[in-house]
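Q: Given only this backbone (136 positions), what sequence would you predict?
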C-alpha cells in the first residue's frame, strides 16, 4: 500500500488479514461477509478497491471460472497450480502436475514462444457429484 501511495487503514488491514486467512478462492461478497463479521462498518467499495489494488500489484490473483463470480486467491510465485472446477456443485480443486508444465514448456519452445503466464482450468463433475448422481 505504501508503494502505491495508499494509506494503511484499519479497515484495509482487516481486509488483507481476512484474505490471507482464506482457505478457498473467495468472492468479493464472501470476503465482505467475513470482514463485516469483525467490523460491520466496512463497505463494499472499500473491499473492492483493496482487492483491485492487491490484484494490480500482483499480490492477489483474480479468477473467472465461468459462473459469473470473480474469485480471488493469494499469488504464490514459488508454486503454480491449476484448477479442477465442478460444474455441478462449484467445488474448485487445486492441483499441480509437473508433466503438464513440462509439456507446455516444450510446446512453447517448439514454436519459439516465451510464456509469461498461463492458466489451466478443467471443467466437469467432481467425484462427490458423480457418486451422488450414480445413486439416483
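A: Predicted residues:
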Amino acid at each position: 500500500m505504501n508503494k502505491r501511495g495508499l494509506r494503511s487503514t484499519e479497515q484495509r488491514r482487516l481486509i488483507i488479514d481476512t484474505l490471507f486467512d482464506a482457505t478457498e478462492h473467495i468472492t468479493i461478497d464472501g470476503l465482505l461477509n467475513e470482514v463485516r463479521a469483525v467490523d460491520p462498518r466496512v463497505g463494499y467499495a472499500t473491499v473492492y478497491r483493496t482487492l483491485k489494488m492487491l490484484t494490480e500489484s500482483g499480490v492477489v490473483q483474480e479468477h473467472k471460472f465461468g459462473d459469473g463470480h470473480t474469485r480471488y486467491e493469494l499469488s504464490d510465485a514459488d508454486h503454480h497450480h491449476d484448477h479442477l472446477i465442478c460444474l455441478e456443485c462449484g467445488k474448485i480443486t487445486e492441483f499441480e502436475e509437473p508433466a503438464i508444465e513440462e509439456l507446455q514448456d516444450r510446446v512453447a519452445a517448439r514454436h519459439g514462444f516465451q510464456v509469461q503466464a498461463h492458466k489451466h482450468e478443467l471443467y466437469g463433475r467432481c467425484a462427490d457429484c458423480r457418486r451422488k448422481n450414480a445413486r439416483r
